[in-house]
Write a structure and sequence with these properties.
Helix content of chain A: 25-40%
Membrane topology (chains A, B): Peripheral membrane protein
Largest interface: A-B, 96 and 96 residues
Oligomer: homodimer
Distance between the termini of chain A: 29 Å
Subcellular location (chains A, B): Cell membrane; Cell projection, Filopodium; Cell projection, Ruffle; Cytoplasm, Myofibril, Sarcomere
Largest sheet of chain A: 7 strands, antiparallel
EC number (chains A, B): 3.1.3.95
Family (chains A, B): Belongs to the protein-tyrosine phosphatase family. Non-receptor class myotubularin subfamily.
Enzyme class (chains A, B): hydrolase
Strand order of the largest sheet of chain A: 6-5-4-3-9-8-7
Chain lengths: 671, 671
Amino acid sequence: MTAPHVTLGEVLLPESGAKQTDKIRERRIAVCGACLQKTDRRQKQPPVLIRSQSVEEVLPCRVMASASIPVYNSSNNPLENSSNHNASRESLKMEPLADCSLLPGEERIIDKDIIYICPFSGALKGKVFITNYRLYFKSADADPAVTLDVPLGAIGRVEKMGGASSRGENSYGLDITCKDMRNLRFALKQEGHSRRDIFDILFKYAFPLSHGLLLFAYLSQEKFEENGWSVYKPMEEFRRQGLPNDKWRVTFINANYELCDTYPTILVVPFKATEEDLRKVCTFRSRGRIPVLSWIHRENQAVICRCSQPLVGMSGKRNKDDERYLDLIREANGTAKLTIYDARPSVNAVANKATGGGYEGDDAYQNAELVFLDIHNIHVMRESLKKLKDIVYPNVEESHWLSSLESTHWLEHIKLVISGAIQVADKISGGNSVVVHCSDGWDRTAQLTSLAMLMLDSHYRTLRGFQVLLEKEWISFGHKFANRIGHGDKNHADQDRSPIFVQFIDCVWQMTKQFPTAFEFNERLLVTILDHLFSCRFGTFLYNCESARDTNELRSKTVSLWSLVNSDLSFYQNPFYTPESNRVLYPVASMRHLELWVTYYIRWNPRIRQQQQSPVEQRYIELLALRDEYLKKLEELQLSDSSPNSSHLSNSSTPNAASPTQHVTHLHTPF
Amino acid sequence: MTAPHVTLGEVLLPESGAKQTDKIRERRIAVCGACLQKTDRRQKQPPVLIRSQSVEEVLPCRVMASASIPVYNSSNNPLENSSNHNASRESLKMEPLADCSLLPGEERIIDKDIIYICPFSGALKGKVFITNYRLYFKSADADPAVTLDVPLGAIGRVEKMGGASSRGENSYGLDITCKDMRNLRFALKQEGHSRRDIFDILFKYAFPLSHGLLLFAYLSQEKFEENGWSVYKPMEEFRRQGLPNDKWRVTFINANYELCDTYPTILVVPFKATEEDLRKVCTFRSRGRIPVLSWIHRENQAVICRCSQPLVGMSGKRNKDDERYLDLIREANGTAKLTIYDARPSVNAVANKATGGGYEGDDAYQNAELVFLDIHNIHVMRESLKKLKDIVYPNVEESHWLSSLESTHWLEHIKLVISGAIQVADKISGGNSVVVHCSDGWDRTAQLTSLAMLMLDSHYRTLRGFQVLLEKEWISFGHKFANRIGHGDKNHADQDRSPIFVQFIDCVWQMTKQFPTAFEFNERLLVTILDHLFSCRFGTFLYNCESARDTNELRSKTVSLWSLVNSDLSFYQNPFYTPESNRVLYPVASMRHLELWVTYYIRWNPRIRQQQQSPVEQRYIELLALRDEYLKKLEELQLSDSSPNSSHLSNSSTPNAASPTQHVTHLHTPF
C-alpha cells in the first residue's frame, strides 16, 4: 500500500492494480509527465505520433538525428536574415533530440531552450522544438519528464507576453491559445529579444495559409494500408438505403456545382420534380441549398430532407415552385402532413427576414407544419464553449462546480440539439417525412439530420458507417469546416469560427454513454476525430465544401483520417458492441442524464485523469480472450478426437449466446 | 420500429432490445404500472414481496384469499368500535384481492375503494388495502394497472387533507409523507367521513410504537435458509484482523454495558491500558464512549480508533488519564504523531464547549495533531436531503437542474464525508494511527471509520464483509437507528431524525461507481438495505444500541436482513467483481466525479426509469455463461478423450485469466 499525497477534495485515482492480459500489458501506457504524455514501448512503422493523451498513445521516442530525419541546415533557414542576434543564433543550434519521432514529411524548423509555465507543475526548464507540424516540449529537470506535443493546427492564437519593460520572473515570453481547450505559456530570457525568432516561426507555421504556405496535410508523406478516401461513395450509400426508387431519383444537375456550389454533386430529389423545378426552387432557398433527400426509412418510406431557409424576406415573398416542391416531398410516401423543423428559435427565424431569409409561412405551405427547435446560432455556441473553458482550464472551478457548469449553458445547448434530433427521428419512425433547415443549412441542420440518422439507422453506429455519416452529412453537404475551425488562419477572432462539429461529437458521445452496447466505436475514435479536426495532418476536415476540395485536389494530395483509423480498427472498437439492426435509439435528453464530457474537455488536467481503460472494459476483454482460448482448445480437441461426444461442438454457441460470438469475429484482438 | 410519445427534453429510454439468455429471461422483470411496480413470473416459497422497484422485484401475485392467508374477521377488527358509519362498514368488507402475496405473519386490516392521486398519471380509482406490514394499492381502470406497495415502516407522516368545508374534486383525503423520497396522496368520498377509519388504522399501524403495538419485525414469521444473526461475531472479526496481539487486548469490561451503555460488549484497547484506566478515561468522554480500536493495518499496525468528544467544557478541563490513554494508542506502533480527526467544523467543536464538550487541545495532547473535517451535523444533513426531495419529487426540476442540485448541498456533504474518510485511510496507509470522533461518535464518526475501512480493507467490499462492516461500525457501536429513522414512531418532526446512514450508503454507492470491479455486491444490495432501514420487516436496524437489543431480545424474536440477502446471494452480486486483496481504494472526492444517485433518489419518477440491468452487465453475464458452457464441454471432452491433446486442459485457465475464473466460482449463476 502506498500513501499518495492527498489534498482535500482532490485525490488522484491510483492506476488500476488489476491483473492484465499479456496483450494489454504489451500495449500498456506509461505515463511520463504531469502533462499527460504517454509513451508506448511498442515499435511500429511508419512512426505515428498521436496527441490526444487521454485516449491515445504517443509512439516510441526515437533519436531525432537519425538518417531519415532532416537535420537543420542554416542555408535554408527561413529566419536567416532576421536572426541577427547571438541569442538567436545560439538557439538555432540543432541537437539530436530524443523522445520524439517525426511523421513522414515532417521537418524540424527550430529548437530552443525555454521555460514551460505548466499550470499544474509550475515553471519547467526544457527545450521546445517546432516542426512544420508540431510544437514539442520536453522538460529537462522534472522526473518524470513533462512533455507537450501539440500539432500546430491546434494553435488558435500566439501572443507575446510581457514587454521590454516587464519585470518579474518568467514574465517575458509567449502565450499560446489552443483550439483544444488548453493554453500554453512559455517564458524566455529577456536579454536579446530571444523570443523573436520562435514567435515568428510559430506564427508562420501555425498559420501557414496566412503566410502563403501549404497546410501540413499537403506536405505529409504518410502511407497507410487503407485508403480512407474510398470510405464514402455517395451512390453506394444511396443504394444501401434502397435509392433510387419510384418516388425518389438521383440527379446530376449539380455535377459541376452549378446549381449549388456548397452541395455535393450527387443529389436525391422527388421523382416528380424536374431539373427545371430544381432550378426554380434554387432561387428561393438561401445559397441555393434546395431541399434534398438525406435518408429514407426502408419500411415506411418517410424521408429526412435538408435545406436552407426560404428567401421570404420582409415582404413575405412566396414561391409556388418551392411550395409545390415541398408538397412533392410530403406526397412521396402518401402522408397528410410534412413536418418542417426549423432548428432556430422562432425569434431568430423572424429576424432573418430582415436579411432576406425567413421561414415557411402557414398560408403558403398548407400541408406542412412548422416546428421551431430553439437551437441557438454559432455565436452563442462559441461563447458557451469559451465559458466552459474558463471554468475547466487550467483550474476546474470546484466550489460552485454545478452552478458554474450550468451558467455556461453548454449542456443545455447539447440537450436542445439532442431533443431536436429525437423529434426528427420520432416523426420519421411514425411514418412522416420531415424537412430540416436552419439559416444556411450547414450547421444546426447537419447536427440534427446526422444525429437523427444515428438514432434511426444502426449502420451509422458501426465504425465505417459513422465515417460515412460524417463524410455525407457534414463534409459533402458543406459544413464550413475551414471557416468554423480556421485551419491555418491567423484571424483568431473571426466571427465565423464556432465549435458546431465539436458539439455534434459531444452529442454522439452522450448517446454512446446512454447506449454503451449500441456503437461499434469507442470514445477514442471520437477524441481522435476531434484532434484531427484541428491538426491539419489529414485532408478530411479541410475546406468548406466539395467544390473547394476538388479545386484543391484534396483527395489526391492529402491523406484521409480514415486511412489512419481503418488501418488500426481494433483500437477504436467498443468491446461491448452488440449489433441490433432494427433498434431506434432514443437517448434521454434531460439535464439529469447529460454529462459533461470530462475525458475530452478536461483531459489536460492531471487531477482529472481518467483511467486509461475502464476496469469493466478490461474485465470484459479478458473474458473475451478466455472464451476464445476455450473455443480454440475445443476446436483442437475436436480435430484430434473422433468420439461421438465432440460431434455437437460444431453447434457450440447457443442461440442466446449468438451475439457475443457474432461480434467477436472482429474483436478477438481488441488490443 | 415503434414511435414512443415524445415530449421535449423528456424521452423514455426504450427497454433494451438485446437478446437475453434463458437465465436472464427466466427472471425478467415485467413493468406493470406507471408507479414502477414490477412483477416476476417466477414462483418461490416463502412469498417475499420487495418494494424497491428500481432494483428489486415484486414476487408473484397470488390470490389473497388463499388458505394460508388470514381472511379478515370482523371479530378481531381493531376498528369495530369506532366504525359506526355505513360508509365505514361497507369499506371493511374484505374481498379476495389478487396481485399481492402476504408475508408469513402479515395480516390484512382493512381495504377500501380509494383514489390515488398519482403525480405522474393523475387521479386513479382503485382499491387500497392495509396490513400490519404494508399499504398496497391497485388501480381499477388504468392499463397497465398502477400499483403501490409501501411498507408501513416507510411512512413518516399521515395527514388529513381537505376539511369538511373543502371543495374541489379529490380535495378530501390523506396525505402520506414517506421516508423513502416520495409522498402519496389519496382522495376519498367526502360523504360520511369516509376517511376516518383508514386514517385511524394507518396512523396506528404505521406508528405502532406510539400505540403500544409491536413493530412488524416481531410479528413476522418468515423463515430463511440462512440465519443472518450469525454473520457478525466480534471475536471472529478481531481475530481476522490479527487481534489480540502484544499491543492490543480484548476487554470484557463492558460485558454488562456498565462502562458505556451504547457500546458493544467486546472492546479492543491498548494492551498497556488497565481496566482502571478505561474507567477513568470514560469519565472524560461524552456518553462514556472511550477511544477503542476499530481496525488495525496488518502490516504497519496503524489503527483506527473511534470515540466521542472529550469533556473539555468552557473552562478547558484536562484529563491526564485521557491524555495518557491517547498516547498509548500512538505508542502502540511506534510512530511520533497520533492524528485526531474531529469530524466537525471547528466552530461547532468550539461551540460544544458550552455544553461540556470540546476537542483535544494542543497543549494537553502533545504528541497528537488535531484535524477538523468540516462535516456538518445531523440537522444540516436532514435539511439538505429535504431540499433534494423538493427538487426531485414529484417533478424533477429541469430548467435549473444543476444549480438547484448544488443549492441542496447534498453532493457537497457527500464530498466532505468521502474526503474525510480518504484522509483517514491515507494516514493509516502511511503507518500513522488515528482517532476519529465527532460529538457523540455515533453519526459522522461511524461514516468516517466505516468508509475508511472500506477503502483500506477489501474484505469489507465482499457481500458478507460489508454486512460485517455495517454490523460492527454502525449497529454494534450504537448509531442511533431508532432515533435517526424513528421506527414506528409518530413524531415526524423529531429533531433527532436524520439521514446519516442513507448518506453513508450514498458514499458507498459513489465508491462502487468509481471502482466498478472492486465490490462484490451490486446496487440492488444498497437499495435493499435502505428499503429495510425503514421497513421494520427485519430486526437488523432496530434500536439505538446493543444493550437495547438485548433487553428486547431482538436476535431471538426477529429475523435479520442478512437472512434474506444471504439466502439469495447471487441476486446481490456484481458480475464485474474482481477480488484484489491489497488494493487501497481512493475515490475521487471532487464535485465533477460525484453523481446524484438517481436510481435511488429519483426511482419513483417513471420518466427517470433506468434500465433494469445495464446492457453492459447483461452482455457480460451472457459472456460468462458462454465461457462456462465451453468449459463444461471441454471437461466433457476431456473425460471421453484420452488423447495427449487433452492433457493440457487441466491447466485450462491461463495465469492472466485467473481472476475471471476466480470470481466465477461463485458467479456462474449470477442470475
